[in-house]
Backbone:
């Protein structure tokens, strides 16, 4: 590790070499061995494509044995919290992913305080972490705190609905909220723009603090800065999830096949289509800002 | 002799349908009266001159004809040799046929053939002219959460800007705190036929956090319209044409979740299908692929059946087997998956109207072609969405049926309820009803 790396002094000559520049590598190796934990919560009315998006984000099938309720069961349905845990590994890096789902949210006729079970769950996880942290044996603390909550906004309305506002207001102090415009293939590009502007306005108007991506360092290269800027401007992300692979012009892509055309879900290996932001969504959670989400959750009151 | 031949030859052709076409004499000989009428006793009301220009159709028997068929001497007027029919056949046939023809039967029951052109079918033309002068009324209500495309759908249906948004342009969309009902009336005309169209919109439905009883204002409105009509109807001197503001059809927009009907949808449809014709549609159906659409429809149909909600076209009101066949085809497709769009677009130089252009990326944008490929969803294309079927149902084929069922079934049941209630409470004496009340209570 320390051999072969030379650090010049200010006057251009090689000075004494200490070797702590290898620290990041050591940290890297340790974390790779230890693995990462990430808890993601998805919330929103049913039928907005939450499960499909989760599956297409992580390219796994998390809801294989899910069954939809029949008519009688649905009338008396209340909001539940379900957890699915999956361990994924990519290039030697292990990730323990927990998806927290909220079936029944916003589905009843009377949805007053339907966010209460969600808020209670989040508080419970904080409480547990707090206890573990104050305990004597702190070696293996399980971090079950919710790191990020993706809130699905319906594209069919005219901006935020009263339920959306209430949910986000109740939870923005507790968890990082990333609003997402679901089923965006319903909207034409101009409609997408209009909706996004409307939603951003309303978020400001109601004083909702959604997750702000941290500013990138000034010494990052231009391309990254531009990308970061574009990322920030396209909140809320307009997403399309897809579980199926369709043929398009001789290529196999994840997409949705309609009689009038094909929609691409994640662009696999191709350039990002402007204006939809679908292939950008994986990057905030898994890319350079994932650490920020973790830190944010820890620091939130 | 020849005359009787012709008459009996005509009788022999029983299979030909009555009406003008059957009366065209296939033979070149001058048409004559059938033997039956001539053999009738002269007490027949209408003496028919021999030169009366009729073809080979039978005039319907006059009501004044008292003579029983057996009194007719037609067996005696069997054709001699030379007629197309065998003598014994015709003699056997004639009495049988004459028994079939009831002597005093009222005309027009379908069993009688005419042997002349009467002109009954001209009544259709008269009706047409009259209705064109008076025009039609049609009241439709659209219900659903905001943003599902109700106003756009109405505009697309009637190909003109008839929704409430068109009449208040530039107003921003705000979700009202309670359900409001806004009616907009337009008179639209096509090929000389005028229609007074009233569209009632329900902004605020299903948008709140607590949506309990959000259907109450709607039910109240519908009942108010029935009440208004009832009051006009039971007046002693009532108007010749009672203005009809009753809601003939209610189009309910189901959001395309793809899973099931929400409790709110079920509650609403259950209550309203009892008082008005409810037509459920899947709104913004371009969200669903074809398989998803088929699954969704199936689940909705199961749900409706499980909750015993009968949507239009209701099975109980099919009048005859033909109707039933037609309506069964429609019932399989309910709810229709519709997409509303009121903008015209150009695709490949051709105008596609109406439709919406969407950025479907059939090919990813590359360096040489940075614009993603566009494809267009044409609303009128039945492969893309079922909007044409909805339009046909509402306007082209079942409009009169909607009105009839509203008048004959829903309004009648409202009326029965109301009049039973008001048996205990006397209605205003100006209508002369207290007397009627007494009769009812004595019964």
Residues:
């Amino acid at each position: 590790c320390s051999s072969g790396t030379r650090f010049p002094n200010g006057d251009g000559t090689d000075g004494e070499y200490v070797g702590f520049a290898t620290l990041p590598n050591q940290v890297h190796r340790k974390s790779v061995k230890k693995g990462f934990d990430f808890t993601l919560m998805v919330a929103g009315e049913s039928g907005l494509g939450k499960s499909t998006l989760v599956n297409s984000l992580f390219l796994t099938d998390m809801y294989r044995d899910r069954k939809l309720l029949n008519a009688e069961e649905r009338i008396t349905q209340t909001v539940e919290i379900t957890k699915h845990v999956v361990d994924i590994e990519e290039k030697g890096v292990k990730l323990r992913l927990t998806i927290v789902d909220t079936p029944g949210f916003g589905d009843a006729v009377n949805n007053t305080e339907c966010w209460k079970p969600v808020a209670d769950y989040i508080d419970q996880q904080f409480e547990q972490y707090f206890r573990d942290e104050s305990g004597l044996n702190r070696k293996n603390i399980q971090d079950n705190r919710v790191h990020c909550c993706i809130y699905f906004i319906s594209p069919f309305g005219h901006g935020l609905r009263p339920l959306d506002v209430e949910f986000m207001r109740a939870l923005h102090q507790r968890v990082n909220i990333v609003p997402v415009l679901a089923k965006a293939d319903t909207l034409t590009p101009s409609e997408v723009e209009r909706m996004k502007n409307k939603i951003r306005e309303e978020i400001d108007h109601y004083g909702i603090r959604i997750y702000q991506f941290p500013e990138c360092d000034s010494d990052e290269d231009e391309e990254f800065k531009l990308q970061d800027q574009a990322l920030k401007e396209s909140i809320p992300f307009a997403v399309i999830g897809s579980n199926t692979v369709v043929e398009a012009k001789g290529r196999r892509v994840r997409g949705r096949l309609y009689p009038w055309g094909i929609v691409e879900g994640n662009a696999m290996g191709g350039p990002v289509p402007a204006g939809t932001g679908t292939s950008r969504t994986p990057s905030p959670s898994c890319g350079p800002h994932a650490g920020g989400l973790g830190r944010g959750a820890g620091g939130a009151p | 002799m020849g005359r009787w031949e012709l008459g009996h030859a005509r009788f022999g052709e029983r299979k030909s349908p009555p009406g003008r076409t059957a009366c065209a004499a296939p033979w070149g000989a001058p048409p004559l009266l059938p033997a039956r009428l001539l053999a009738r006793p002269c007490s027949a009301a209408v003496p028919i001159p021999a030169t009366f220009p009729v073809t080979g159709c039978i005039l319907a028997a006059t009501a004044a004809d008292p003579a029983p068929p057996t009194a007719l001497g037609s067996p005696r007027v069997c054709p001699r040799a030379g007629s197309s029919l065998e003598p014994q056949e015709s003699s056997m046939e004639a009495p049988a046929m004459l028994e079939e023809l009831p002597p005093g039967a009222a005309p027009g029951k379908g069993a009688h053939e005419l042997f002349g052109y009467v002109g009954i079918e001209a009544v259709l033309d008269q009706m047409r002219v009259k209705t064109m002068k008076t025009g039609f009324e049609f009241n439709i209500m659209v219900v659903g959460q905001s943003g599902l495309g109700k106003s756009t759908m109405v505009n697309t249906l009637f190909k003109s800007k008839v929704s409430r948004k068109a009449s208040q342009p530039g107003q921003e969309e705000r979700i009202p705190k309670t359900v409001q009902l806004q009616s907009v009336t337009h008179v639209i005309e096509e090929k000389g036929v005028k229609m007074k169209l009233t569209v009632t919109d329900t902004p605020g439905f299903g948008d709140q956090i607590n949506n309990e009883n959000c259907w109450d204002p709607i039910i109240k409105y519908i009942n108010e319209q029935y009440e208004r009509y009832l009051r006009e109807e039971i007046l002693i001197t009532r108007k010749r044409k009672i203005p009809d503001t009753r809601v003939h059809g209610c189009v309910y927009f189901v959001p395309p979740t793809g899973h099931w009907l929400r409790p709110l949808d079920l509650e609403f449809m259950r209550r309203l299908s009892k008082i008005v014709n409810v037509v459920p549609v899947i709104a913004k159906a371009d969200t669903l692929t074809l398989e998803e659409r088929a699954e969704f429809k199936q689940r909705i149909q199961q749900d409706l059946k499980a909750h015993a909600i009968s949507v239009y076209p209701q099975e109980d009101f099919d009048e005859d087997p033909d109707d039933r066949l037609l309506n069964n085809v429609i019932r399989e497709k309910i709810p229709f998956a519709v997409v509303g769009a009121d903008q015209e677009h150009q695709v490949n130089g051709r105008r596609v109207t109406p439709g919406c252009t969407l950025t479907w990326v059939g090919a990813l944008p590359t360096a040489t072609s940075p614009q993603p490929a566009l494809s267009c969803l044409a609303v009128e294309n039945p492969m893309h969405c079922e909007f044409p079927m909805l339009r046909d149902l509402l306007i082209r084929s079942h409009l009169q049926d909607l009105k009839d069922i509203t008048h004959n079934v829903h309004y009648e049941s409202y009326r029965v309820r109301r009049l039973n209630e008001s048996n205990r409470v006397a209605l205003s004496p100006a209508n002369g009803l207290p007397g009627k009340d007494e009769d009812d209570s004595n019964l």
Confidence is low (pLDDT under 50) at residues 1-108, 346-373, 432-443 of chain B.
